[in-house]
Design goal:
By secondary structure, this protein is α+β, with helices and mostly antiparallel strands. The protein has 3 domains: 2-141, no CATH class; 170-200 and 353-548, no CATH class; 207-346 and 566-579, PLAT/LH2 domain (Lipoxygenase-1, Sandwich). 32% of the residues lie in helices and 21% in strands. The protein has 12 helices and 21 strands. A 5-stranded mixed β-sheet has the order 13-17-14-19-20, with no helix packed on it. Strand 15 and strand 16 form a beta hairpin. Helix 1 (175-200) packs antiparallel against helix 5 (382-405), helix 5 packs antiparallel against helix 7 (438-449) and helix 5 (382-405) packs parallel to helix 9.
Length: 598
């Protein structure tokens, strides 16, 4: 990057010099022919024509004094030459400088006012610079220290000229580059851990076929169990459930599957597990559930904290919610291992929207660490949540760089990135940047939810093999998922390399502004904008898809639900008397609920 130009030309183009002519330059020192005595050395190929010395930007940092120029002629055949230690590339025999020679030259600075090179515009500019001159002082004021530029002038400087030197040496800082580097490293680790967890948790989000189902039972329910966000909420104990309906009961069904190796892989804190329960007939409207554990888990895995249980009748579409919010097991709370819960007929949308189970899916920085608590983790895994966050943050870095590059920024403490010298403009720009992230953390998970995962594709193929005319819900073809995977894998890598490159060229003031704005943006995104986006997304999901956490159209399409309509009703007055279930418990629970209501 060449920003300055010194022209040296002979007084008489007809003058000739025997030997090789060299030009030496030094800042605030008289230049000499030895390497230690000059800053730069140039060869003047043709003394009859002008030569130009270009001064790059780094050579001008913190330098407001004089640059001295010296000329030497090397001629080993001359009788008055003196040998010096040569610089690299020149033999000692040829580096014999003439003590006295006759050559008259002039030097002039190609300069016009105070200019600096604006890299983002790829041209010289004097925007936001000031200049004035006089008999004693020549000063330029700008955030770029540039003493040479374009134009032609011959400034006349007398021997008594005084200089005002910089008293504060401000080195370039690389905080912006380090910040971008850390973003890439951190998110890469999160993505790698996410892929590792997906291998260990390959069945998360599946609809488990309960192992005590009977082939002849054709009435289908989905039982969704939420394990709460509590320490030691995970359990390895066996869990049983009894459903009490208006027409019949389904008693002592174990929430397990042939796919489940151990319960602590399914009933994990902060997640939901779904089970397909088959019954010989419709139970009617389900009014109560009884849940208990057998305390076979060891240590911390003995007890279990249940948030709620949701049951969906796949034939009628009815959804029954049973709030639990309590511990099961002898080691926690009151030590009870069995609890009875009544259906909650009053749906409070606010409580569902603010449930951490759905917010863990719609708030991306939670989902990328936990995988989300609901069924969609089968389609949108942890790595894709992490990729959405990484892409959004890299876009923010690029936009942040573009903004600071076009601004004239002077910070009183540019090296103190974490100082309190934050302006209102920084906060407003940071707020804008925190909003820019949201489309990426919303759109990418949404795109992946539109395309079935590999396990769902296998189920679709099996259904089509049985009946090619079977109507299935619309979905994007598998090739779209593969293309999305390629795009959202390589695009962040390219943006990361680009962001590393451009932030490394920022000056100290601009790098400080970049870093401060990004850190403010990150805090605003974590604390304000992303949670608000998560709440809005949860509200939209629950209002458009009330059974989002329980089942989707594809789950129901691959099941033989049509046979459930032809089942005979249960025998009149059917009531099972198992595991100590009595009507008095249900009556007492109803009375307690009515007392709380009053």
């Amino acid at each position: 990057m060449k920003v300055g130009d010194v022209q040296i030309y002979p007084a008489d183009p007809e003058d000739r010099v025997d030997g090789d002519v060299y030009i030496f330059t030094a800042f605030q020192n008289l230049p000499g022919p030895m390497v230690k005595d000059h800053d730069e050395m140039f060869a003047w190929e043709d003394v009859s024509r002008p030569t130009y010395l270009y001064v790059p930007v780094p050579a001008l940092y913190n330098k407001t004094g004089r640059f001295y120029v010296g000329i030497g002629v090397a001629n080993k055949a001359a009788s008055n030459c003196v040998r010096f230690e040569p610089p690299p590339g020149i033999s000692e025999e040829d580096y014999c400088l003439v003590r006295d020679f006759d050559l008259v030259v002039y030097a002039r600075v190609l300069n016009k006012g105070c200019y600096f090179y604006q890299g983002s515009w790829n041209r010289f500019t004097n925007v936001n610079t000031t200049s004035f001159g006089g008999d004693s002082y020549v000063e330029c004021s700008t955030h770029h220290l540039t003493t040479f530029s374009v134009g032609i002038s011959n400034p006349e400087i007398d021997d008594g000229m005084a200089y005002i030197y910089i008293t504060e040496v401000r080195e370039q800082i690389i905080t912006a580059t380090i910040l971008v580097l850390l973003i890439g490293i951190h998110m890469s680790i999160v993505i790698i851990i996410g892929f590792h967890c997906e291998v260990l948790e390959f069945d998360k989000g599946w609809l488990y076929d309960m192992k005590d189902n009977t082939i002849g039972d054709l009435y289908h329910y989905v039982v969704m169990v939420e394990t709460g966000y509590r320490m030691c909420a995970t359990t390895d104990s066996k869990i049983f459930i009894t459903l009490y309906g208006t027409d019949a009961d389904e008693v002592a069904r174990e929430l397990s599957s042939a796919r489940v190796v151990k319960n602590s892989d399914v009933f994990v804190w902060g997640t939901s597990a779904r089970f397909l329960l088959k019954a010989p007939w419709s139970l009617g409207d389900i009014r109560f559930v009884r849940v208990w554990v057998d305390n076979t888990g060891q240590g911390d895995l003995e007890s279990w904290y249940c948030n709620r249980i949701v049951v969906k009748d796949l034939h009628t579409g009815s959804i029954y919610r049973f709030p639990i919010h309590d511990w099961f097991g002898a080691n926690m709370s009151d030590g009870a291992t069995e609890r009875l819960a009544a259906v909650d007929d009053e749906i409070i949308l606010k409580n569902d929207v603010l449930s951490i189970h759905i917010l863990a899916e719609t708030i991306s920085y939670i989902a990328m660490y936990t995988g989300g608590g609901l069924r969609t983790r089968q389609r949108v895994s942890r790595p894709w949540y992490a990729c959405s966050v990484l892409l959004g943050q890299l876009i923010v870095c690029v936009v942040n760089w573009a903004i600071v590059s076009c601004e004239d920024i002077v910070r009183p403490n540019a090296d103190a990135v974490y100082s309190l010298s934050v302006e209102l403009e920084d906060v407003l720009i940071a707020m804008l940047l925190s909003i820019i992230v949201l489309p990426f953390t919303s759109l990418i998970p949404y795109l992946f939810t539109k395309s079935p995962c590999d396990e769902e594709i296998e189920e679709i193929d099996l259904v089509k093999e049985r009946n090619e005319q079977e109507k299935l819900p619309s979905y994007w073809p598998p090739i779209v998922r593969k293309l999305l995977s390629l795009v959202f894998t390589w695009l962040p890598i390219g943006l990361w390399i680009f962001a590393l490159t451009v932030t490394g060229k920022l000056s100290g003031d601009h790098a400080a502004a970049f870093t401060q704005r990004y850190l403010i943006q990150l805090a605003l995104w974590i604390l304000i904008t992303e949670p608000i986006k998560g709440i809005i997304a949860a509200y939209w999901i629950l209002t458009h898809h009330p059974s989002h956490a329980v089942s989707c159209e594809l789950d129901e399409a691959v099941l033989p639900l049509q046979y459930g309509k032809e089942l005979r009703p249960p025998p009149e007055g059917l009531r099972n008397e198992v595991v100590g279930t009595t009507d008095s418990d249900i009556i007492q629970l109803t009375q307690n609920k009515e007392k709380k209501t009053r």
